[in-house]
Write a structure and sequence with these properties.
mainly alpha, 19 helices
Length: 444
């Protein structure tokens, strides 16, 4: 009788501990997402965002809430989430490529630890800038701030929000080290999932009020299922590069002589380009939108805020371009053809039909052919929420969850977590999550 994979997950002590630890950390994260920053009247804040939602004028707040599960509109201590840290990681990775001194540091013993420290210090700076923007935004809401002393209010808010963001990053690190899945991705995953009940309630209200036709809801739901299937299909696709290793005699033993392959995914960078592109746009969008809400806002600030409207054409064009850029950038960092070619040559390997000195060129050509369609696929799905919102009249919060970035992140994180669970089950000699004990991949 075949064993139940769900039961097997709870039989393995290590896996069980990791799962419960992950759930505990996510519960702490959700608790912090509803604790309002000191000095803010929560009732006034709730009425303000409810009115914006009724007027369909909450594009900025809905966008900021996307990765933090409503923590921004709550003005909670975790309102910035992990996005400042991700933004700083991107900046540091670019800086390592641009500045030779940083590249030398990263290649030294313990260099990556130093780069990580620099990223965390930079994250504090980014958090302080965004937290200052939060104070300006709060002051633009009538009767929202209850502390009369503005200097004290700004100091308390900036320290609280910055500390909350760094705690969120630390919680993500704890999941990576002692839980299941990538911690930072799991925090974003939890934020998206937490918004689903409210989005469903809002959609039902819109259908009852005849703001959205039921036939459109059914059509979008079918499209939602089809996109999930396409994302899974694309995520499981691989291009296998065959590699033959020559036999080597070392002492009295013979090594090598086997054939293997290098698996290149159709989308080598997974959901990273989407997260990177969104986080890069978050910083200027939050600052500009905050300044546009200020009492002394300049006309050009308002124009720039409208230009960066998350539901606008120009924002989506920038998002598409950034997704394509980060797909190439991240793949080159993680799958460097030069490093792979050197490792193949040093171990006496060769790719059938490819000269040894042409290995790097061949791998680069294969990667470029994979990255372009993969990045275009990501970009196409990323703009679906805007299309759904404008074509079918869906509320923005619902449209964001019915496609685009949310779907790819949900599916990507889920597949990654399943792979880790699968590995732990196999390590403890248990049946995997699938009948043959492995998550299938397709060869191209």
């Amino acid at each position: 009788m075949a064993s139940n994979p769900i039961v097997n997950m709870f039989k393995v002590k290590e896996l069980r501990k990791r799962m419960f630890f992950t759930l505990l950390i996510l519960a702490v994260f959700r608790l912090g997402s509803v604790i309002t920053v000191p000095g803010i009247d929560a009732k006034v804040l709730l009425d303000y965002f409810d009115n914006l939602a009724k007027e369909n004028n909450n594009a900025f707040a809905s966008y900021m809430d996307f990765f933090v599960g409503g923590a921004f509109s709550n003005f909670s201590i975790f309102m910035l989430g992990v996005m400042p840290y991700i933004s700083m990681q991107i900046i540091m990775q670019l800086a390592v490529i641009i500045f030779p001194a940083l590249k030398r540091i990263s290649q030294e013993d313990g260099g990556q630890r130093k780069i990580t420290q620099y990223s965390r210090i930079g994250t504090i700076v980014v958090c302080l800038i965004q937290a200052w923007g939060v104070t300006v935004y709060a002051n633009s809401i009538p009767n929202c701030v209850v502390i009369q002393n503005q200097v004290m209010f700004k100091m308390i808010t900036m320290v609280t929000v910055t500390t909350g963001s760094m705690i969120t990053v630390w919680l993500g690190d704890q999941i990576t080290a002692r839980g299941i899945g990538n911690g930072i991705s799991m925090m974003i995953f939890a934020g998206i999932v937490a918004r689903m009940p409210n989005a469903i309630v809002e959609l039902v209200r819109a259908v009852k009020a005849n703001e959205v036709r039921l036939v459109f809801v059914i059509l979008v739901f079918v499209m939602f299922i089809a996109i999930i299937a396409l994302v899974i299909f694309e995520e499981s696709g691989q291009r296998k590069i065959p590699v033959n290793y020559a036999k080597r005699v070392v002492g009295r033993k013979m090594y090598g002589g086997q054939s293997t392959y290098i698996p290149f995914k159709v989308n080598p960078s997974n959901v990273i380009p989407l997260i990177f592109a969104s986080s890069i746009l978050t910083l200027p969008l939050s600052i500009i939108s905050t300044l546009a809400n200020g009492s002394n806002a300049k006309p050009w600030v308002g124009a720039l805020s409208r230009f960066l409207n998350p539901t606008g054409v120009w924002y989506n064009i920038l998002l598409v371009l950034l997704i394509i850029f980060f797909a190439y950038f991240y793949t080159q960092v993680t799958l460097n053809p030069t490093e792979i070619a050197r490792n193949i040559r040093e171990n006496g390997g060769s790719i059938p039909g490819v000269r040894s000195d042409k290995t790097e060129e061949y791998l680069t050509k294969i990667l470029n052919r994979l990255i372009l369609p993969g990045s275009l696929f990501l970009a196409l799905i990323a703009v679906i929420p805007t299309v759904v919102q404008h074509a079918f009249g869906f509320p923005q919060s619902v449209a964001q969850l019915m496609g685009g970035t949310s779907l790819i992140i949900l599916v990507g994180v889920d597949l990654d977590t399943m792979s880790q669970v699968e590995a732990l089950l196999k390590m403890h000699h248990q049946d995997g999550l699938t009948k043959k004990g492995k998550i299938r991949s397709r060869s191209l």
